[in-house]
Specification:
This protein has about 210 residues and is α+β, with helices and mostly antiparallel strands. About 20% of the residues lie in helices and about 25% in strands. The chain is globular and about 40 Å long. The relative contact order is 0.21.
């Protein structure tokens, strides 16, 4: 009888201890950072997961999220593949990889532009996303790039290029895109190296989480 009572008490104590342990673990769990959003760039080479720094570049992130949610980025080409530098996409002129429009690739954007947001804690390092733009620092719209290497000169060159996110998974996919054969096209700058087979390096969609 005493052994049975002792055994029951042992089970109760063990159960309470397990509950308190789980409770303690739950209270120590780091909450999701509300200042960071996540997105998935689906490409013909695979999936790229990114995080977006909305507290540091709110206008840029909001613009990117709005365009992604409206399917603006669906079926666009990574039209600029500068090995050892960046890969770039977001030009609606590249939609569907229509070869007859190649001489306009790199020149298009969305209807709205956003003011430049430079945060001193964000740099154009390998894996980070930045906004492409024209000569006006406030002319960024839809085109963005992923740095293949540390390009800190872009932090200040021509007034600087805004960084707003980072690849957290899928740099192998980024590098696979960067490794495809490219060609120069008349009427475009030699810096805007275009993929020979554009259909092999497309953004199929971008989903926000």
């Amino acid at each position: 009888m005493y052994m049975l009572v002792g055994f029951v008490l042992l089970i109760i104590v063990a159960g309470v201890g397990a509950y308190l342990y789980v409770l303690g673990q739950s209270s120590n769990t780091t909450p999701t950072n509300p200042d960071i959003m996540h997105a998935q760039i689906n490409t013909t080479k695979g999936v790229i997961q990114i995080e977006l720094y909305r507290s540091k570049a709110p206008k840029t992130v909001n613009n990117f999220v709005s365009l992604a949610n409206s399917h603006f980025y669906d079926n666009l080409v990574w039209h600029r593949i500068a090995k050892g530098f960046v890969i770039q996409t977001g030009d609606p002129n590249t939609k569907g990889a229509v070869n007859s429009t190649r001489n306009t690739w790199g020149q298009g954007g969305s209807p709205q532009t956003i003011s430049q947001e430079l945060d001193p804690s964000l740099h154009n390092d390998a894996g980070y996303l930045g906004m492409a733009r024209g000569g006006d620092v406030n002319s960024a719209s839809s085109q963005f790039y992923i740095n293949l290497v540390d390009n800190r000169s872009l932090d200040t060159t021509n007034g600087g290029y805004a960084v707003f996110g980072k690849v957290i998974s899928g740099m192998d996919i980024v590098n696979a895109i960067a490794g495809v054969p490219v060609e120069n096209v008349p009427q475009t700058s030699p810096l805007y190296n275009q993929p020979v087979d554009a259909t092999s390096v497309m953004v199929t969609s971008i989903t926000i989480s």
